[in-house]
Amino acid sequence: VKLYSTPPPPPNPRRVRIFLAEKGVTIPIVNLEPVRGETKTPEFLARNSLGQLPVLELDDGTCISESLAICRYLERIYPDPPLFGSGPIEEAWVDMWTRRLEFQLWVHVGSYWRHLHPFGVREGVPRHADLGEMALRDYDKALEWLDGELAGRDYLAIDSFSVADICLLTTLDFADWAGLKVPERLINLSRWHERVSVRPSATA
Amino acid sequence: VKLYSTPPPPPNPRRVRIFLAEKGVTIPIVNLEPVRGETKTPEFLARNSLGQLPVLELDDGTCISESLAICRYLERIYPDPPLFGSGPIEEAWVDMWTRRLEFQLWVHVGSYWRHLHPFGVREGVPRHADLGEMALRDYDKALEWLDGELAGRDYLAIDSFSVADICLLTTLDFADWAGLKVPERLINLSRWHERVSVRPSATA
Fold this sequence. Notes:
The structure is a homodimer. The longest helix of chain A has 28 residues, at 88-115. A 4-stranded mixed sheet of chain A has the order 2-1-3-4, with helices on one face. The two termini of chain A are 19 Å apart. The first copy, chain A, has 7 helices and 4 strands, in the order E-H-E-H-E-E-H-H-H-H-H. The relative contact order of chain A is 0.14. The first copy, chain A, is globular. In chain A, strand 3 and strand 4 form a beta hairpin. Chain A has helices spanning 11-23, 42-47, 67-77, 88-115, 129-149, 163-177, 187-197, and strands at residues 2-5, 29-31, 55-57, 63-65. Helices cover 51% and strands 6% of the residues of chain A. The A-B interface holds A 49-50, 58, 62, 64-66, 68-70, 72-73, 76-77, 87-89, 91-93, 95-96, 99-100, 102, 104, 125-126, 128, 130-131, 134, 145, 148-149 and B 49-50, 58, 62, 64-66, 68-70, 72-73, 76-77, 87-89, 91-93, 95-96, 99-100, 102, 104, 125-126, 128, 130-131, 134, 145, 148-149.
């Protein structure tokens, strides 16, 4: 088994690396450079027709892409500690929160990147500053909502650390790298960020 | 237990209704009208702080939102027939495909809706026709990619009908309602669409 990944800052490959660190599992990592076209070669497109990272390749050549799908596979193979929740309700809540993070938080980071960030320029893709500005406002609103949801809670989805916390951490850290900070007045969110950032897995 | 939903055309509540129909399970449905503000009342926001549908409410008041999280809960309670795959690899593939559909297909329908569709106008939200036009092109490209992926396959993610097929069906049907058709030349995709549309659950 091996993991095709890429070094920071992209958040999705980091999700899987943190997940593996939390499980205490080490697997060989092959780092590719998307900017050099290494994910658009015929060999790599046979592993993931979208040419995206990360991809987990099993020993028989079976490939799984999409960070959370890879994590779900790893959860079945290495069940301890459980990171997708235990029992039907916890599992649903972890799922609910990973989806909320994608659609309520990550989309705004993506839109800001695409419309305003200097590295977001792509040939033939129009940029509109008003949408980038709106994304900044929507990102702040989403952080505020998350701060409220985290009141009195140590972790986002359930009482223990889960893959939802991994998704939030990787999103906030990437956004921070891109220039979007968590306002200090959001105390619950800031404390949560400190709490998960001191876990050894956070360096992955 | 009860399901807060809304009548067609929104695709996400339909996902859960189709899922229930495939399981042969009937639960009480409470239909709400978002356009009348029925999902922004204090009572409903206590069930889902995002004020979105669908929401599954259990008998003890526990609430689960996000269509796929609800389906995952229902899968645990009603395991037959399995709709999230059987075994670690199938489960990962179903997950991979639901995510691919959200990020490679649905996003373009959403962007078209937001920037070009007459019903997509929202006060204070800028619209840019060039982004709507790009979304139309990207949607067609995504359909073409899906058509290739479906070559020689009856269902999208695994050899049997899964929740990934439900996500694709609800996306295509909503897009069709919004004016985005599947080109007839995409034979694999058109045949897949006929195949799943004749299932009794498709009327849900």
